[in-house]
Amino acid sequence: MRLTHLMMASLAIGFTTSLQAADFTFKYAHSQTDEAPRSESMRYFKEALEERSDGRIAVELYFNGTLGKEEDVLQQVQMGLIQGYRGGLFAQANPAYLIYTMPFLFTTPEQAIDVMEGELGQAINEGARESQLHIPVTGVAGGMRQLTNNVRAVNQVDDLRGLKIRTPPLAPTLRAFEALGASPQQVPYTETYMALRTGVVDGQENPPSNIADMKFHEAQEYMSLLNWQIHPDPFFISAQWYDQLPEELQSIVDDVAQETMTRSNEIWLASEANYLDTLGEHMSINDIADEHRQGFVDAVVPVWEHFVERGDFSQEQLEQILALTDQAEVLE
Asked: In the sheet where 222-229 sits, what is the strand order?
């Protein structure tokens, strides 16, 4: 009997200790579904950080927008009420993130990743400190963004003229579609499917993973592989929370965040071919001929120049990227 009591007491102590083991809590949220590549990578983050920190940091994951709209979540991260977030609104962290979204600036996601992992990318991450955010790493939010619509296949710039395209409320995107002759429309992301179904908009633009995840292909006839833009995926961490961590835990958080983003990039990009196969079963998919791509680039150069003049990033930074993507002659 005594042994039984001792064993029960020992178990109780162990259970209490496990409950109290975490010195810090990392509450994370984003708006994508449980099945999204971003969610898959964050499950790795939770497992790795809790193990690597010996349980000193407990990670709570909230997907599907359960903690609110992206703007509300980002605000809570800046205030230290939530500790982590990945998603849109990156320009609120640092306007320089907009350089990644310049239309037709990159031709492949790998080009963007190289810049994000280099000196220019790190400087942009560090600039977010002024917004009360610690950003240890930035990746890509899916592959290159493509266009779908119900009117016609888009093969050259003139094919876009007059099309009503749902876009996110991102200034470079709005200016790009205006420059290309389309009519950008503001529809909440979660309402886009019905807007496509009912003809409120003719089309939308997203990477294949998002198009498949949100089932936009069920309401669209044409998909044109413009490879026109890519979005950055900064890992937003509350600077207030991060700064209170001991140095050894800060290093662990940064290391695990780096590994998580590497996995996220790999998952997203490796899945693109599969997503395209799925989408091809529902839509007619066309590529853009090389001789037509230059017409798109020429049409959007004024968009690049606008954001340089506005001061979001510098001409030097833009030229650095153009040199890396073998497009230095575009501004000559």
From this structure: 183-186, 164-167, 203-206, 145-149, 222-229, 284-287
The pTM of the full predicted model, rounded to 2 decimals, is 0.86
Q: What is the pLDDT of residue 99?
A: 97
Q: Check: CB of residue 45 under 8 Å from CB of residue 53.
A: no
> What pLDDT score was predicted for residue 20?
55
**Structure letter (DSSP) for residue 130:** G
Contacts of residue 12, defined as CB under 8 A and 6 or more positions apart, other chains included, come to none
Please, what are the domains in the chain? 19-92+113-140+233-273 (3.40.190.170), 145-231+274-331 (3.40.190.170)
pLDDT of 142-178, one tens digit each?
Answer: 889 999 999 999 999 999 999 999 998 889 999 999 9
179 pLDDT exceeds 80? Answer: yes
- How far apart are the C-alpha atoms of 199 and 46, rounded to whole Å? 41
Under 8 Å CB-to-CB from 115, ≥6 apart: which residues? 100, 121, 321, 324
